[in-house]
Amino acid sequence: MEKKTITIHLKVWRQKDASSRGEFKNYLVKDVNPDMSFLEMLDVLNEDLIKKDEEPIEFDNDCREGICGMCGAVINGTAHGPKSGTTTCDIRMRMFKDGDTIVVEPFRAKAFPVIKDLVVDRSSLDRIMSKGGYTSVRTGGVPEALSIPVPKENADEAMDMAACIGCGACVAACPNASAALFVGAKVSQLALLPQGRPEAARRVERMVAQMDEEGFGACSNHGECEAVCPKEISITAIARMRREYWKAMFK
Ligand code: FES
């Protein structure tokens, strides 16, 4: 049986570069297979634009499996779109109805300048990571099981925090454009494990200082970051970052 296709009206933010003025442009995408991903639908539109000798829409992507953190757009006002716990590349067109209008914009934040259309420069997050989001101590080979006891709850929570893919949706959703959930997750994943403790104080001090330097806003516990996080990271990460920060200040 032939699959029913849908027609979508798109309002997409087009912007040549960071210093140009952007604007929304309207497009009609016909014959959209509901099983297509959101990015595949944009691919179809881009093929059409190329055939018409128009500039295709630039958007970031890599794995298209929800694991690399490259994709990201604000879809109908929500970072990564209407489905919770899902990246833009994992949104399926069956979420929309025939004839729907979908508004697509880049992640917006001072620390994420637009490169082109939906592509933003998120290297500010990389610079925060370079200040301490790693362990530099030599840990040697894989230790014997239980040679470093780690409470199960800590191991589980560290794993949850390590799920952060650094997409920046938390920043885009926050009214203050704060990167606190991102930094909180990165600080927490190491703070919860023994291997991360030796550098914990230096790590949190340097990462928080870099976060401020990059122009991210302060966290006011709004909670939007948690609501849009495709990896469903809890804002308890932010509380832990604060605790680690104060511990570092008074050490
Ligand atoms: S393209 Fe990798 S998470 Fe979406």
UniProtKB/TrEMBL annotation:
Any one Gene Ontology BP term: respiratory electron transport chain
Protein's recorded name: succinate dehydrogenase
Pfam families for this protein: Fer2_3, Fer4_8
GO molecular function: 2 iron, 2 sulfur cluster binding; 3 iron, 4 sulfur cluster binding; 4 iron, 4 sulfur cluster binding; electron transfer activity; metal ion binding; succinate dehydrogenase (quinone) activity
Family: Belongs to the succinate dehydrogenase/fumarate reductase iron-sulfur protein family.
Source organism (scientific name): Caldithrix abyssi DSM 13497
Residue ranges of domain 4Fe-4S ferredoxin-type in the record: 155-186
Highest taxon, organism lineage: Bacteria
Keyword tRNA processing: no
Cofactor: [4Fe-4S] cluster; [3Fe-4S] cluster; [2Fe-2S] cluster
EC nos: 1.3.5.1
UniProt cross-references to PANTHER family, sorted A to Z: SUCCINATE DEHYDROGENASE, SUCCINATE DEHYDROGENASE IRON-SULFUR PROTEIN
Keywords assigned: 2Fe-2S, 3Fe-4S, 4Fe-4S, Iron, Iron-sulfur, Metal-binding, Oxidoreductase, Tricarboxylic acid cycle
